[in-house]
Amino acid sequence: MSVALTDRLDRVVGAKAADALEEHFGILTVDDLLRHYPRRYSQGMSVLEDGWEPPEEGEHVTFVDVIAKADVRWTNRQPKREFLVITLKNSKPKVTATFFNARWTKNILVPKTRLMLSGEVGFFNGTMQLTHPAFLVLEGAGEGKGSKSLAKIAETSREPDGALSLEGFQRDYFPIYPASAKVQSWDLYACVRQVLAVLDPIEDPLPESVVRQRHLMSEDEALRAIHLAEKPEDRERARERLAFDEAVGLQWALVERRHGALSETGPPAPSRDDGVAAAVARQLPFELTAGQRAVLEVVTAELAETKPMHRMLQGEVGSGKTIVSVLAMAQMVDAGYQCALLAPTEVLAAQHERSIRSVLGPLAMAGELGGADGAIGVALLTGSMTAQRKRQVREQVASGHAGIVIGTHALLQDAVEFHNLGMVVVDEQHRFGVEQRDRLRAKAVGDVTPHLLVMTATPIPRTVALTVYGDLETSVLRELPRGRQPIATNTIFVGQRPTWLQRAWQRIVEEVTAGRQAYVVASRIDEDDGKEPGRKKAGREPGPPVTTVVEQYERLGQGPLKGLRLGLMHGRLSGDEKDAVMSAFRAGDIDVLVCTTVIEVGVDVPNATVMVVLDADRFGISQLHQLRGRIGRGEHPSLCLLATNLPEDSRAGARLKAVASTLDGFELADLDLAERREGDVLGLTQSGRPITLRLLSLHEHRELIESARAFAESVYEADPRLARHPGIAMLAAPFAETERVEYLDKA
Ligand code: ADP
Ligand code: MG
């Protein structure tokens, strides 16, 4: 039989096994199966399916071990029946297995027998128990005997003379596959062995020069070794090779998408000396930083092109991204186009409108009394507006009267039509999915694809920028405008030092007395609030009960902060209520804002100088960094206090100390990445399947990802249709329908 990677599996392993593989894992072809890589390798000892943690009740596990003890017992009830209990030798915690067909098994499963066991875990008095698991004797008197499912595997490797071949089982290492109760690791192992026995030599998908230059194992060797190599070094090299394949596949998909976008038609907007953009630049109350000027230079040039800009602007909180976007939008308006600025919350949208109006001054008052010549119409559209007001705004947008339209998700609705949309700015990108921003871009007239600028205050590690956001160019604003004060950050381990929290409240009182303002942040609104914890996956690190904003608001107002003016802010207030609280805080009529993470992004109150984060362990690294960015925005030194009930030597304690130790967002982003699982970073495909990076780690494989990117770019230049590199299309196939989603929302 001659078998190739692209062949369907039923030819090789039979219809029944092939159906099961398809149903449970979506595995259709030989290639799919061989890329269902082992999760790890058992070293002839106990192996739990799911990594290091003990399995939970009902989970499916597989062991390879030796029998330490075998006891025949009798059931209590009539009719009395014999059963066999074996205890494994090396497994910790202790593992026993029970068999009811003792009459047969007691002769086979005797002490010193080496065997595999596979079944559902139960617990009894702390002992892990498998009840009637599948088994296969690997060494001992009953060699080759076992339950049907496993014996079948031995069957499939019959010697030519018809004798059972145990070669496949007599080894030091076994691949352990991601498996299910219906298709166990052993079933996969059997299929893989069958396939590899008949597979033709695999052609290398990468050019020989690349393989040689990177000292890679050949594809043929790697796809075999990752499953069956006995030597750890060989498996390691195989993984390295296949990780590079994966990186190339992913980068090819992204490079192709980006070049596809580049071939679209964009709205050209050459910059002018006599327009609003130039006038705004002249009247700014401050000087742009070198970083802002550099980014603007690039953006200005790209907006003048007939290709749509596709750029992400990353900048530390407070680095002044907004003004960059305002000048870019003004350039578009000067050329006769409209711009949309999409903000994640109503608070932010309203704040943008206010700050854009104040930057533009009379230049934002088109058609209004005192408006300048050629002024821009600025409009705000949010969901909480009255229907009538919304209609008015929509008319201004449709007529083209509004040159800059700021809004929340409300902007995405079908009823919103633009006269001549030329640019979309998305603030705090991670709050929006790609499909949302594309929905907005689709509102352009004709075949024009608007320019796109996405702004994020979350520093994004290079590998994430290259993968999750791989189709966007990136610009970075590293420096903060002059005159900013540093933020000191301290951790408070409340359990160990309860008085420190008292001290924190005192600090707030002192700052307020000196004319400053403060934030107190909690992770939950009230007792009913399960939805607004910082970490979505609650229970990762179990801890003491979590406080709420409502509780704190009352407690602080009657106790430690008595006499100060407190405001309460959270996501369940109405739009009007939120506006009122934010305006009061901004105006200095509220001293202390007790709030949830609704204030996380973008809120700008320079007079706020202290922040106390309660249950700080509930938040991810990047999120804490974001929160902290709300202070230190004015001329006064600021203080951020991260309080937790967890002990200092917990994982959360270490995380908080890391946040306290640096203000460098990129450093923190790398730490954050190290803590996450890749799946959390990458999100889902369009069809809702999780994007799986099988071997590639965004945390560990930076060099590899960068060179895969460079390689993909060079191939695209020379051979965009892959006429000479057909193997790359195959590597890219799993990523072709990739849809990245919110990166940070998963923090
Ligand atoms: P972010 O990048 O976090 O969105 P903003 O755009 O909100 O930051 O800017 C923060 C503050 O800094 C705003 O009050 C803005 O007016 C001010 N700002 C921006 N650029 C400069 C600059 N070059 N010099 C001084 N202040 C600036
Ligand atoms: Mg901002």
UniProtKB/TrEMBL annotation:
Keyword set includes DNA repair: yes
First-tier enzyme category under EC: isomerase
Every Helicase ATP-binding domain range: 302-477
CDD domains listed in its UniProt record: DEXHc_RecG (cd17992), RecG_wedge_OBF (cd04488)
This enzyme's EC code(s): 5.6.2.4
Stretches assigned to the Helicase C-terminal domain: 504-674
Keyword line: ATP-binding, DNA damage, DNA recombination, DNA repair, DNA-binding, Helicase, Hydrolase, Isomerase, Nucleotide-binding
UniProt xrefs under Pfam families: DEAD, Helicase_C, RecG_dom3_C
PANTHER family per UniProt: ATP-DEPENDENT DNA HELICASE HOMOLOG RECG, CHLOROPLASTIC
UniProt function note: Plays a critical role in recombination and DNA repair. Helps process Holliday junction intermediates to mature products by catalyzing branch migration. Has replication fork regression activity, unwinds stalled or blocked replication forks to make a HJ that can be resolved. Has a DNA unwinding activity characteristic of a DNA helicase with 3'-5' polarity.
Protein name per its UniProtKB record: ATP-dependent DNA helicase RecG
